[in-house]
Amino acid sequence: METLILKVDRSSEGYDKLDKAARIIKEGGLVAFPTETVYGLGGDAKNPRSCKKIYRAKGRPSDNPLIVHIAEFSQLEDIVEEVPVSARELAKEFWPGPLTMILKKNKVIPRQTTGGLDTIAIRMPDDEIARELILRSECLIAAPSANVSGKPSPTIAEHVYKDLSGRIEAVIDGGQAIIGLESTIIDLTSDIPTILRPGAITKEMLERVIGRVDIDASLIGEGEDIRPKAPGMKYKHYAPKAELTIVEGNISKVVVYVNSKVIANKDRGLVTGVIASSENVTRYSAEVVKTIGSSEDEEELAHNLYSILREFDETNVSEIYSESFKGDGISKALMNRLLKAAGHKVVNADKEAITRIIFAGKNGSSRSPMAAYILKSMDATKDYEILSRGILVQFPEPLNPKVEAVLLSNGIEVGDFHAVELTDNDINSSTIIFTMEESHRDKIIGKLEKANEENTFVLPAYVGDELDILNPYGGGLQLYGLCFEALKDTLNKLVNILNQER
Ligand code: AMP
Ligand code: MG
Fold first, then answer.
1. Using a 6 Å CB cutoff, which residues line ligand 1?
2. Ligand in closest contact with the CA of 64
3. Against a cut of 0.90, is the pTM above it?
4. Which ligand number lies closest to the CA of residue 185?
5. For 425-467, what is each residue's pLDDT tens digit?
6. Sign of the C-alpha dihedral, residues 304, 305, 307, 309?
7. Matching CATH number, 4-234, of 3.90.870.10, 3.30.2310.20, 3.40.50.2000, 3.30.70.940
């Protein structure tokens, strides 16, 4: 089957191509169409064969019911046992719009449409193309999201085409879905109206109209044994190909945390992706950084999520880190989807923040203490514990006298010093270790259990320098002076990275 693309110009009246689409639906075929939430895959809700085709095209389990889309309130009265007052009030306030209500069904809609349930999910979309399509087809349109099961819902026609071309008769291209996340689902058949899926219409908005509203336990708790009431919520949800982790906490610490992961990945030849707010996008050093929108604009963030997740699958990233987006509006729905995509993997950067910096060298009496003393002398490093260590220290040697002389001549006082060997006891979850040379890094990782590619780095590489730190060993004072300058330069860069408005 060849899938037609019917491009509809919203600015011109008439929507002439919709008649063709309407005919396809009336004749039992499938048409994907835009709504304000996401693109839907529509078929005649009263035709069991149409519904079967929907399940087949999506690869969707047949016990996962479809939402029936209507264009006029009277169509609701035709298909449910009764219309409770709460449904009337909610419809008055939020229809047409991104709210789906679950009510008791009568016999007009076949059970194939509702996945065997005696309840039915109904929504009146706000999108003009969707409403026109329903009216012109003279059908009620059963429509789940127009993606292959297990993929993010489509927010543009291209997403639909990519997933379903060859499997459906047509897709109407009406531009971007404005909201970009699926509708809020509220169950009005329980004693207390219950949200089964969060969306653009929030709990608070609903409560303002009908009083107390609960949230389905499975949406808040993570207990696997709690069976979600919306059958669709029990299925494995979309997860990007790369492992996705949400990083929450103070944004500066989030940036530092993520960038340290980027460097660790780079060392292993792996590419990292980041989902960033537009305010912070330039602060990440990852190879692929995608802006999801301004953190001040919850709607924009929600609108872009699914596109971004799909875009990442086209890249070669092996890990993705996302900022966390908290807010009172649609952010709740956004975080619900993001958490699912991440398999609930969340780290708190505040707790992971680096507090101890160790410079480690061969015997720990020359370049590593020089780096430690320089860093300690800098502004804005007083919150760090800064240490120097040697990889192998047989005698507690004093500071190399030339290092001491260079430090002193630069106004850095040196106290009591003797070299100390680096051990596992020095390393905890907030420790970062820097070496001057790659061979030292490798030795440390090989020798110590707690040292690894996530916490042990070559200093110049970490700050993005191409050159190594000069080794002055055996040279004169002047060479030690040059080493000092090089280190100072590199450490300034380190402070910028570590200390972003700490
Ligand atoms: P989608 O069409 O992909 O947005 O998915 C529709 C969602 O509505 C799925 O999570 C379904 O499980 C849910 N749903 C549809 N009908 C019912 C119903 N009668 N009772 C509970 N949940 C429903
Ligand atoms: Mg869906």
1. 64-67, 102, 114, 117, 119-121, 144-145, 182, 185, 196-197, 229-233
2. 1
3. no
4. 1
5. 999 988 999 999 999 999 999 999 999 988 999 999 999 888 8
6. positive
7. 3.90.870.10
